Write the structure tokens for this entry.
Amino acid sequence: MRRRVLLAVAGAALASAAVAALPGAALAHGLVGRQDLPVPRWLFAWAAAVVLVISFVALAVLWPTARLQASTERRVLTVPAALDVLCGAVGVAVFAVVVYAGFAGVQTTPTANLAPTAIYVVFWVGLPFLTVLFGDVFRALNPWLALARAATWAGRRFGFVLPAARPYPTWLGRWPAAAGILAFAWLELVYHGRDDPSLLTTLAVAYATVQLLGMARFGIEPWSRNADAFGVYFGLFSTLAPLHWHDRALFLRPALSGATRVGVRAVPGTVALLCTMIGTTSFDGFSQGDL
């Protein structure tokens, strides 16, 4: 036990030194910008270092053994199927409004157009926070998932013969999702025309089209669980939430406990996706510094 604490303290000290040595601009980027940090940079750096030290030591002393793996979920309530339809309709309507605004709205001033704000601020930044708190919100509102389900229901309702879905390749796993998140991060962080409303909208429509074609070929659930980049991305965030939605039922569980099951159910490409998520965020911070 004592050796574990010493190792944790040493690791925390090394991490703290690395954080303290980072350029102030890089640290400031995630807060308010490169030059608008509301506190002195040296104070922010040392505060971050202290937080790291306390976190590592507290985890080593107070959490020496695994506690979340054996956690259980408690069923809280069941929601009617109509709620799925309503949420899907809301998602499709919001997507349609964003697409319309992206094509018909102001093109010369990106901040005056709804599309860039909706995609970069509400969708990319805001939705993960909601997901960590309330579970997989995006899956309930996913517009292309709702459209695929509606098309399937309509085909069965009116007697259309739908082509049989092919098995989703096991080896492919979540590699398409990793590639999709990497491409979106490149668009956001590197591409010079990233705030062009019409371009963003065209890419959004193209992405939705690819998802619909993929679901038609490999099945709605296999494709959305593996190859839908944003569906898988937000799904991983939802493992941290204390709420878990499954088969129109709401389950309550200890926060973070869902993350312990990611490794158990890992498929090819999961590690690559996690590394992409961490790496793009790190690049976002370091690219704003003076390195």
About this structure: Residues 1-35 have pLDDT under 50 and may be disordered.
